[in-house]
Write a structure and sequence with these properties.
The chain is an alpha+beta fold. It has one domain (3-281): YwqG-like (Hypothetical protein YwqG fold), CATH 2.30.320.10. The protein is 18% helix and 26% strand. It contains eight helices and 14 strands. The chain has helices at residues 3-12, 22-25, 77-80, 161-164, 172-183, 209-215, 227-231, 265-269, and strands spanning 26-36, 48-49, 54-55, 63-64, 67-68, 70-76, 94-99, 117-122, 130-131, 147-157, 195-197, 237-244, 258-264, 277-281. The strands form four sheets. Strands 10-1-11-12-13-14 form a six-stranded antiparallel β-sheet. It has a four-stranded antiparallel β-sheet with strand order 2-6-7-8. Strands 3-9 form a two-stranded antiparallel sheet. Strand 4 (63-64) and strand 5 form a beta hairpin. The protein is globular. The two termini are 27 Å apart. The relative contact order is 0.19.
Length: 283
C-alpha cells in the first residue's frame, strides 16, 4: 500500500478528520518476504534470512557469554536500495545481524544485555566473501535454515498514536476505527513472517523506544532521577530490523515472538550500526 492508497483507506474508514495526523503516523517500510531454500542454490553475498553468513576475512563470528551468537540475516544493500523510499540505509555494502544463543533469555530490558547481539556493516569486496560454517560450539537450536528473500515497499502505521502525536485530540470512536484499520492494513495472506526493515514495528506488547533510550543508558527504572533528562530522546529511536518467528527455518523467539533491532536516527544517518539496541517481545 502506498501513500495515496493509505489516504483512501483513511477516508473509507470514516477517518477523514485524522488525515491531518497521517504524516506523523505513517512510515515507509521495506517488507522482507522469505522462502526456505537449499542454501547451496544461493550465491555468496546475496540477502538471506538464516543459514550461514558470507563473511569477509577480517570479520569473526561474534560470541556472547561464552557461546557463539546465532546468525540471523545478511542484507545486501544494493538489493534493498530500490525499496528504500527515504534513502535511510546505505546504498551499497552488507549488513549482518546476529543474536545470542538458543537460550534466548535476552529481552533487551537489562543493561547487561548489551553485547548479546551484533550488527556489522561493511563496504566489501564481494570476491573475498566466504560462506562461514557454524562454530562447533553453537547449539543446534541456534542454527537456522536458510531463506531466500524478496523485498517490497510497504507503508506502515503506528499502533500508538497517543505517543506519536503531540496534540492528540482523537475521539474514542476514531481510535477504535483506526485500530481496526491498522489491524486490517495487511491482507490475511501476508500477515505471517512479518520481517521488515525500517517503518513502524508490529508491536506485540508496548512501544519500545523509551525502553531502548533508558536501558541503553544503563537505566531500568523510569522513576530514576536520571530518566527525565533522557526521556526526550526516546522518539529519536527508529526501527532498523524486525525479525518474526519462522518455524519453517527453526527460528522461534520465545513464544512466537519477534526480535526488534532499534537505532537512533542520528546513529543510522552516521552508519553507527554497532550502537543498535535489541528488544524481544512475545505474547
Amino acid at each position: 500500500m502506498d501513500k495515496a492508497a493509505l489516504l483512501t483507506a483513511f477516508e473509507q474508514a470514516g477517518l477523514s478528520r485524522l488525515l491531518k495526523d497521517i504524516d506523523a503516523l505513517a512510515k515507509p517500510s521495506i517488507r522482507i518476504y522469505t522462502t526456505p531454500v537449499d542454501e547451496a542454490h544461493l550465491p555468496v553475498g546475496v540477502s538471506k534470512v538464516g543459514g550461514l553468513p558470507d563473511l569477509p576475512p577480517d570479520l569473526a563470528w561474534p560470541a556472547f557469554d561464552g557461546l557463539p551468537q546465532s546468525f540471523i540475516a545478511q542484507i545486501r544493500l544494493a538489493e534493498v536500495s530500490p525499496y528504500d523510499v527515504e534513502g535511510a540505509l546505505p546504498k551499497t555494502g552488507l549488513l549482518w545481524f546476529f543474536f545470542c544463543d538458543a537460550k534466548q533469555d535476552i529481552y533487551g530490558d537489562d543493561p547487561q544485555n548489551c553485547g548479546a547481539w551484533q550488527i556489522f556493516f561493511q563496504e566489501v569486496d564481494f570476491t573475498t566473501l566466504k560462506r562461514t560454517p557454524f562454530p562447533a560450539t553453537l547449539p543446534g537450536k541456534s542454527r537456522f535454515k536458510a531463506s531466500s528473500v524478496r523485498f517490497a515497499s510497504e507503508m506502515t502505521l503506528s499502533q500508538v498514536p497517543q505517543i506519536e502525536l503531540a496534540n492528540y485530540d482523537w475521539r474514542e470512536e476514531e481510535l477504535e476505527k483506526y485500530e481496526d484499520l491498522v489491524a486490517n492494513l495487511t491482507p490475511p495472506d501476508q500477515r505471517a513472517f512479518r520481517h521488515r526493515l525500517l517503518g513502524n514495528p508490529d508491536l506485540i506488547q508496548d512501544d519500545m523506544r523509551l525502553q531502548c533510550q533508558l536501558v541503553s543508558h544503563g537505566i531500568t527504572d523510569e522513576n530514576d532521577p536520571r530518566a527525565q533528562a533522557l526521556n526526550k530522546g526516546a522518539k529519536d529511536w527508529t526501527l532498523l530490523f524486525q525479525v518474526d518467528t519462522d518455524e519453517r527455518i527453526g527460528m522461534r523467539w520465545s513464544s512466537s515472538g519477534m526480535l526488534y533491532y532499534w537505532i537512533t536516527s542520528t546513529n543510522l544517518q552516521a552508519r553507527h550500526f554497532e550502537t543498535a539496541w535489541l528488544v524481544m517481545q512475545a505474547d
